[in-house]
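quick one
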Amino acid sequence: MIKKHDICRVASLEPLSKDTYALTLKVNGDMLKYFRPGQFAHIRLPHAGEHLLRRPISVNTIDREAETMRFAFLIQGEGTRRLSQCRPGDELDILAPLGQGFRVKESHQKIWLVGGGIGIAPLLSLRDTVPGREYTAFLGYKSREYAYELKEFEGFCKAVHVTSDDGSIGEKNFVTEALRRELAKEKPDVILSCGPLPMFRSLKRVWEEDGRDVETQVSMEQHMGCGTGGCYTCTCMVAGAMKRVCMDGPVFDIREVEL
Ligand code: FES
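structure w/ FE2/S2 (inorganic) cluster:
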């Protein structure tokens, strides 16, 4: 039986960029055994008080040897602010790994990663869990001060295309437009993507116009309640049916998910 609920100790918490932190937890080995990139944890906030709901945070990287799971998150409200105040040795109640994650097949040798903002974080877990593929990354940041983990992507990707809203890092452009330009030159075996809904909408336009033959998987960010399929807070329409992002997703085929 895979252990999915545990009290885990904070190993470290470090700032990555403006309002962005990396939280590393010491976890039990069971949680890492069948981990797939794109899966997430549902974390109960420390000293929750009125903030009783857990927060879904996707897994940034795992280390099976050290038995750690790392999460990168952006402060977006009181809950994530509290998380940013954790100290090594603190204990957090977590459910993990949850969701279905990306479906990477043997035929996916040339993989393009498309991430926006904090949605870039889960894409880094491909580096260690699916090695030996040819990766290209398209990373869209708000600005230079919000950029994080760029060096990590440069370390394992053949090429990294960086964009920002204000041009302070990389080119001033939408990340999906950088993708469009490269799709005109060559096609990957699969596109794996994570980011906010507006990015997915423009990704779908680019996919429809320039990449219809390319399998494209998107990892949805959604408000969640239970995180385990019971409350139906996190639904979205997929192939005409209501699906739960926490259980059936968060990763869906771009052809099927309503954006
Ligand atoms: Fe409760 Fe998904 S968060 S069903």
